[in-house]
Target: DUF4429 domain-containing protein
Amino acid sequence: MGDVLAGFHAVWEFESDSVLIRFERGIRTPKLFQSLGERRIPLEAIAGVTLTPGRRGSVVLHALPRPGADPLMEAAAGQLKEWTDPYRLALPADRETLAEYYADELRALLTADGTPAERFLVAPPRTPSQFKAYDGKASFDGEAVTFRWSWTGASSAKWKAGDQTFPVAGLSGVEWRSPEAFEGHLRLLRREPAGAAQPAQADQDPAAVVFGLGYGPVHESLPFAASVLASLRAAAPGAGAAVSAAARRDPADIADRIRHLGELHKAGLVTDEEFSAKKAQLLAEL
Model:
């Protein structure tokens, strides 16, 4: 196609085999977009296209990513807020006709049927080699992830275990929980012997760093997680899928967590919406 469509925070350039998305660096542009810079999305990584009304007199062109095609979206596991979804382009409502034209043109070029991709089709984002979590610093050199614990935030369990280094070859997956939700963290899932299990709580797990109080923001921790996931998948094709739900827990542990959540709610430290959402998430893990 070779055409360009400019939206509020990004410009999409349509090519015969891909869509090149260039994100702006303005003050109002989400930090995740600024961190990503630009991304080339092959058409085979797109399952469909929609055009829907947006907020405040806008329309939204949305390229639906094919499952398993993009390490960033796999790591995010549906946790991104809609306005930080890099596959959405918001435009003024008066450009709806133009947006519909491009949506139709793009649909005509798509060949993917929505089935999961066997490999990542989108390159992982360029990421910082390290970021600060609440209880330590995470770094990644392309072959191994290292966690170095902080004096103030790390639990005694992590201090006893000491700083940790995890070669990608020894991992089976990556679990990212948004810092914008209750109990945000980045957990590395290890290839453990049969019967072995990682601690249920991230603050007690030496293979996890926890977020909060401004530490582990989405624009740093999510691209980091996607980069690790992409390296893991490249090292062991067919392995390393990001998990969207933690392993099933003991019912007694779930009950304790809900009780603690209720105490936080009563104390005003958790909103009604956060309480309801987290309680539902915990119950789903039974």
In short: The chain has three domains: 3-109, 130-235, 251-284. The longest strand covers residues 46-53. The chain is about 30% helix and 25% strand. The helical segments are 31-36, 71-76, 96-109, 156-161, 218-235, 251-266, 272-284.
